[in-house]
Each structure stands twice: as C-alpha cells, then as structure tokens.
C-alpha cells in the first residue's frame, strides 16, 4: 500500500495530471481528446496518462480502436482514506484512537 500511495502522491503533485484527473472525472475521454486541453504533444499527454495509470488513479478501456480513460474511483478512494488517516492522527488524535479501538 505504501508504494502505491507514494506513486499516487507523486502523480498528484503535477498540475497537468491533476487537470487530467478533473477531465476524466467528468467523463470518459480519449488521449486525443485530452491532448486538446493542453499545449503539449500527444506523446507528452500519454506519458502523463501512463503515470496516472501506474498510480492507479485512472483506468482505461478499449472501444473499437480507441482507448478511453476514466477516473479509477477505487484508487482515488484509497488515497483519500490514507490522507484522512494521516489528518486524524496528526490533527484529531482522539478520532484516530476511536478508529483503532473500534
């Protein structure tokens, strides 16, 4: 889990990748469609997509000859849960203690 979280946080540190996540959260999109939102080459967008896939933040499916990207809600939920646990341990230790005893 720790390695996956590290990958996710590295991926989320990049503003382009965060924008890609916003776009695919709204609707499933192809790499070509995503590329139109950025002033970079399609191969550069593909590298960002690969990093997001490796971090398990997006998923891809094939439709005919297209690859369609969408948000991986399970991956995003795992990141959220880990950040929430960290928040509680640091800023709300009484909640963290209740969670551990439950």
Describe the overall structure.
With 102 residues, the chain is of the alpha+beta class. It has helices spanning 2-12, 15-26, 31-35, 42-54, 73-91, 93-101, and strands at 29-30, 58-63, 66-71. The protein has one domain (2-101): Winged helix-like DNA-binding domain superfamily/Winged helix DNA-binding domain (Arc Repressor Mutant, subunit A). It has a 3-stranded antiparallel sheet with strand order 1-3-2. The relative contact order is 0.16.
CATH superfamily: Winged helix-like DNA-binding domain superfamily/Winged helix DNA-binding domain
Q: Specify the CATH architecture.
A: Orthogonal Bundle
Cα separation of the termini? 22 Å
Mean pLDDT: 91
Under CATH at level 1, the class stands as Mainly Alpha
Order of helices and strands: HHEHHEEHH
Work out the number of β strands.
Answer: 3
Spatial arrangement of strands, main beta sheet? 1-3-2
Number of domains: 1
Tally of helical segments = 6
The low-confidence runs, each spanning 5 or more residues with pLDDT under 50, are none
Main sheet record: 3 strands, antiparallel
| CATH fold topology | Arc Repressor Mutant, subunit A
Q: C-alpha Rg, in Å?
A: 16 Å
Strand content: 5-15%
Structural class: alpha+beta
Name the overall outline.
Answer: elongated
Please estimate the helix content: 55-70%
